[in-house]
C-alpha cells in the first residue's frame, strides 16, 4: 500500500520539482536579460538632450523597467545609508522623508527592513526622470503604500507643501548626477528640520589629493574612476562631499568599495555620509576622520587580563577622577565607569583592540541586554548580521567598521576563540581533548566547590605525573613542552608576552614552563572557577555565566552604563605616551606596559607621569618580574612606590599571571611657605 502510494505521488513530485526548476531558470534568464539591457544603455546609449531632464530620460528611459535588479548588485551604499538614518530615527514617529533622486522608489522598499513604513507621515520620492517616476508609481500602487507620494520634479526647486519640515532627506546615488549640486543641497537644507532632521547621502566618489585620511586613494584610481563615470555625465569628484561638510555637521560616514556586475576584479569606491544642521556644540568641535596605524590584523585579547578587584581597592575611584588605562579587552575600562570614574580614557596602539571596545560600547548604547549577552556573554549570536547592519554599524567609526564587517563570523564560531589568545585557548583545548583531558578540565571548570575543584585538578593525570615522578623526568618533559608551547613566538603572538618581558622572567631564575605552571596551579588551588573566576572559566568553556562574568555583563550594570555612564568613556587608538601627554590624570593604570620597555623608555615615561599625574594621584602596574628595574625610576621621578604583592609570597589574584603588583602615589608639591620653614 505504501509503495503504491509512493508510486502514484512520484510523478506529481517530479512534475512540481521540474516546474520549480524551470521557474528558477526562467528568473535567472530574465535577470541576465535585464542586466544586459542596462549594460547596453550604459555602454552604448549616451545621454543626450537640451536640458538635464531630457538627458536623464534618454539615459534611463530604455532601462527603467530593468533598473532595480541591476542596481541591487551595484549600489552598495544604499543599505548602510538607510540603516544609519533609520537607527537614529527609530524612537520617533510622524516622520517626513524626502528621497531626492529617488528613481523607482526602491529605497522605500529597502527602508521597510529598518523602519516600519507607517512610522512615516509622508514619503516624497522626487525625481526628474519621467520613466523612473512611472516605475515608482506602479510600485506604490502594487505595494499599497498610502503615505508615499511620487513627484516628478527638480531637486533644486522641490519643497514639501505647506512649509512642512522633513525629518529625513536622502540623496541615493543622485547627488553626483545633479549639475547644480549647490542648489540641490541648499534647497534640501531649507526644508530639513533644524533640530532633529538628518540628511543622508550615498554615492560614488574620488577624493581630492589632500583629502581626509580615510578618503584618500592613489592618483591613478582618482583619474580612472572620475574619467570612467564622467562618460555617463556622473561627476564623482570631491566637491559635493566637501560642500556637505561645509554646510552641515557630519554625524557619521564610511568609505568603502563594492563589486561591479560582470566586471571582475574592479571595485568601485563609494561613500555614505550622514549629517544634520549645525548646532553650537558641533560647530565648536573639530570633526575629523583619523587614519588607522599599522598593526596586526586582529586583537590579542578578547577580555582584560588584570583582576579589577584589587585594582579598585587600591585606586579608590571617585566621581571626579580622570583615569587613563590601556584598552586590552576593554572589560576593565567599563568597570572603571561602573565604579564611578568621571572620565575614562582607554588607549591601545592596536586598532583591533579599540574596535572590540567600540563594539562593546556601541552595543551597550544600541542593544537590549539579551542580544548584548549573546554577543559578549555567550560569545555567539546567530543573528549577528542583521543586528550589526541595523543597530551597530550605523554608529561605529570607519576603522571599526572595516574591522568588523569582515569578521562577523567571530560571533558564529565563538568570539572567545578568536584573536591571539583566543586561538591559543582553542588549540590548547583541542590538544587537551587529544590527550583525553577534556572531561577532566570540564570537571575542574564546573566543580561545585573549591575543595572539589582541587580534587579534580589533582586527579588530572598530567598533574599527578608532575607531582609523583622524579624531578629529572618532570624537568625533561616540561622543557619539551616549553619549546613546543611556550616559545617566544607563541608567547608573543598568542599571549602578548614580548621578548623584554620574557627576559624579566628568566632574570628571576624561572623557566617559562615553571612560570606558567605556577600561574595555573595557583589558580586551580586558590580560586573557585565556577563561582568566582570568570577569566579561566571563559578559557575552559569559551563563554561566561550570568553569575560569573565581567561587571559590564551583569544586567543591572549594563543598564547603568546604558543610562549614561558609557558617555564618560573615550576610546583612543595610538600610543600610551600620546594619550598621557594629552591631559592631567588622577589615576593611571599601566598594566604590564612598562615591562615592554627598555630603561631609557621607562625614564621618559616616569618623567611624563610626573608631569601629567595630579599631586596625590595614583599609578598602578603589574610586572612579570618580582622586582622590576623601573620601580626605582618611577620613585625617583617623584612618587611614593609600594609593592603590594609578590608571587613568591603566595597566590596573587584571580588571574595570578604576574609576579608583582605595585602602586605609586604622586607626591604632593610643597608650597613656598612650607619650604622656607623647613629650611
Determine the CATH topology of one domain.
Rossmann fold
Overall geometry comes to: elongated
C-alpha end-to-end distance: 114 Å
Structural class: alpha/beta
Helical fraction:
40-55%
Q: Mind telling me the C-alpha Rg? A: 31 Å
What is the number of helical segments per DSSP (H or I, 4+ residues)?
32
What is the averaged pLDDT score?
Answer: 86
Major sheet size, sense and barrel closure = 7 strands, mixed
Protein name: Methyltransferase domain-containing protein
InterPro entries: DUF3419 (IPR021829), Methyltransf_25 (IPR041698), SAM-dependent_MTases_sf (IPR029063)
Pfam families: DUF3419, Methyltransf_25
Organism: Coccomyxa viridis
General description of the model:
This protein has 679 residues and is an alpha/beta fold. Among the domains are: 2-44; 63-284, 3-Layer(aba) Sandwich (Rossmann fold); 425-541, no CATH class. It is 48% helix and 16% strand. It contains 32 helices and 14 strands. The strands form two sheets. The protein has a seven-stranded mixed sheet with strand order 3-2-1-4-5-7-6. The chain has a seven-stranded mixed sheet with strand order 10-9-8-11-12-14-13, sandwiched between helices. β4, α7 (181-190) and β5 form a beta-alpha-beta unit. α13 (351-366) crosses α16. The model is unreliable at 1-13, 281-294 and 671-679 (pLDDT under 50).
Write the layout of secondary structure elements.
Layout: H1 2-44, H2 52-60, H3 67-71, H4 78-89, E1 95-100, H5 106-111, E2 120-127, H6 130-143, E3 148-152, E4 168-172, H7 181-190, E5 198-204, H8 219-230, H9 239-247, E6 249-260, E7 263-276, H10 280-284, H11 308-315, E8 322-326, H12 331-338, E9 343-348, H13 351-366, H14 369-376, H15 384-392, H16 398-405, H17 410-413, H18 419-434, H19 438-445, H20 450-458, H21 461-468, H22 471-485, H23 488-495, H24 499-507, H25 512-526, H26 529-532, H27 534-541, H28 555-562, E10 569-573, H29 576-580, E11 585-591, H30 599-612, E12 613-623, H31 631-636, E13 639-646, E14 660-666, H32 672-678
Parallel strand pairs: 1-2, 1-4, 2-3, 4-5, 8-9, 8-11, 9-10, 11-12
Antiparallel strand pairs: 5-7, 6-7, 12-14, 13-14
Helix pairs in contact: 7-9, 13-16, 18-23, 19-20
Domain Methyltransferase: 98-194
Protein name: Methyltransferase domain-containing protein
InterPro entries: DUF3419, Methyltransf_25, SAM-dependent_MTases_sf
Amino acid at each position: 500500500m505504501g509503495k503504491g502510494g509512493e508510486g502514484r505521488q512520484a510523478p506529481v513530485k517530479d512534475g512540481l520539482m521540474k516546474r520549480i526548476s524551470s521557474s528558477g531558470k526562467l528568473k535567472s534568464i530574465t535577470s541576465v536579460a535585464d542586466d544586459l539591457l542596462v549594460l547596453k544603455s550604459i555602454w552604448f546609449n549616451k545621454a543626450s538632450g537640451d536640458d538635464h531632464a531630457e538627458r536623464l530620460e534618454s539615459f534611463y528611459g530604455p532601462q527603467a523597467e530593468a533598473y532595480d535588479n541591476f542596481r541591487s548588485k551595484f549600489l552598495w551604499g544604499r543599505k548602510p545609508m538607510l540603516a544609519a538614518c533609520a537607527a537614529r530615527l527609530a524612537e520617533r514617529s510622524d516622520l517626513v522623508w524626502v528621497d531626492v533622486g529617488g528613481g523607482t522608489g526602491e529605497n522605500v522598499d529597502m527602508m521597510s527592513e529598518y523602519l516600519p513604513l507607517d512610522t512615516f507621515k509622508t514619503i516624497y520620492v522626487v525625481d526628474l526622470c519621467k520613466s523612473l517616476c512611472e516605475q515608482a508609481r506602479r510600485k506604490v500602487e502594487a505595494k499599497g503604500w498610502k503615505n508615499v507620494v511620487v513627484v516628478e520634479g527638480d531637486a533644486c526647486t522641490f519643497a514639501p507643501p505647506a512649509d512642512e519640515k522633513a525629518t529625513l532627506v536622502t540623496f541615493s546615488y543622485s547627488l553626483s548626477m545633479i549639475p547644480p549640486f549647490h542648489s540641490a543641497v541648499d534647497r534640501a537644507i531649507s526644508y530639513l528640520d533644524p533640530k532633529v532632521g538628518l540628511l543622508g547621502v550615498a554615492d560614488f566618489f574620488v577624493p581630492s589629493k589632500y583629502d581626509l585620511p580615510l578618503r584618500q586613494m592613489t592618483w591613478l584610481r582618482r583619474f580612472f574612476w572620475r574619467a570612467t563615470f564622467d562618460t555617463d555625465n556622473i561627476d564623482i569628484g570631491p566637491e559635493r562631499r566637501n560642500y556637505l561638510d561645509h554646510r552641515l555637521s557630519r554625524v557619521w560616514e564610511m568609505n568603502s568599495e563594492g563589486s561591479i556586475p560582470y566586471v571582475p576584479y574592479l571595485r568601485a569606491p563609494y561613500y555614505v555620509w550622514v549629517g544634520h544642521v549645525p548646532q553650537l556644540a558641533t560647530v565648536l568641535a573639530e570633526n575629523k576622520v583619523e587614519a588607522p596605524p599599522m598593526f596586526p590584523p586582529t586583537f590579542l585579547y578578547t577580555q582584560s587580563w588584570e583582576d579589577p578587584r584589587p585594582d579598585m581597592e587600591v585606586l579608590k575611584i571617585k566621581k571626579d577622577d580622570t583615569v587613563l588605562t590601556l584598552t586590552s579587552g576593554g572589560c576593565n575600562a567599563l568597570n572603571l565607569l561602573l565604579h564611578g570614574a568621571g572620565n575614562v580614557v582607554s588607549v591601545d596602539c592596536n586598532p583591533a583592540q579599540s574596535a572590540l571596545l567600540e563594539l562593546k560600547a556601541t552595543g551597550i548604547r544600541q542593544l537590549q541586554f539579551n542580544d548584548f549577552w549573546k554577543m559578549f556573554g555567550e560569545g555567539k549570536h546567530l543573528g549577528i548580521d542583521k543586528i550589526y547592519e541595523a543597530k551597530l554599524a550605523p554608529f561605529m567609526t570607519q576603522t571599526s567598521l572595516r574591522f568588523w564587517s569582515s569578521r562577523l563570523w567571530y560571533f558564529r564560531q565563538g568570539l572567545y576563540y578568536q584573536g591571539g589568545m583566543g586561538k591559543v585557548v582553542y588549540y590548547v583545548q583541542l590538544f587537551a581533548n587529544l590527550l583525553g583531558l577534556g572531561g577532566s578540565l570540564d570537571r575542574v571548570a564546573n566543580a561545585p566547590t573549591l575543595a572539589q575543584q582541587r580534587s579534580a585538578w589533582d586527579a588530572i593525570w598530567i598533574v599527578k605525573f608532575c607531582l609523583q615522578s622524579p624531578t629529572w623526568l618532570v624537568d625533561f618533559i616540561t622543557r619539551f613542552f616549553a619549546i613546543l608551547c611556550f616559545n617566544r613566538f607563541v608567547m608573543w603572538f598568542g599571549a602578548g608576552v614580548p621578548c623584554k618581558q620574557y627576559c624579566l622572567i628568566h632574570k628571576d631564575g624561572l623557566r617559562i614552563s615553571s612560570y606558567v605552571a605556577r600561574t595555573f596551579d595557583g589558580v586551580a588551588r586558590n580560586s573557585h572557577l565556577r563561582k568566582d573566576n570568570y577569566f579561566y572559566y571563559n578559557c575552559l568553556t569559551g563563554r561566561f555565566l550570568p553569575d560569573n562574568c565581567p561587571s559590564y555583563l551583569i544586567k543591572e550594570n549594563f543598564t547603568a552604563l546604558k543610562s549614561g555612564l558609557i558617555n564618560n568613556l573615550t576610546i583612543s587608538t595610538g600610543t600610551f605616551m600620546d594619550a598621557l601627554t594629552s591631559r592631567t590624570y588622577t589615576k593611571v593604570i599601566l598594566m604590564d606596559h612598562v615591562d615592554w620597555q627598555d630603561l631609557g623608555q621607562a625614564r621618559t615615561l616616569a618623567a611624563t607621569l610626573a608631569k601629567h599625574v595630579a599631586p596625590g594621584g595614583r599609578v598602578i602596574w603589574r610586572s612579570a618580574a618580582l622586582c622590576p628595574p623601573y620601580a626605582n625610576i618611577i620613585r625617583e621621578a617623584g612618587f611614593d612606590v609600594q609593592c603590594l604583592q609578590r608571587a613568591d609570597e603566595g597566590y596573587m589574584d584571580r588571574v595570578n599571571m604576574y609576579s608583582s603588583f605595585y602602586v605609586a602615589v604622586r607626591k604632593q608639591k610643597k608650597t613656598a611657605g612650607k619650604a622656607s620653614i623647613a629650611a
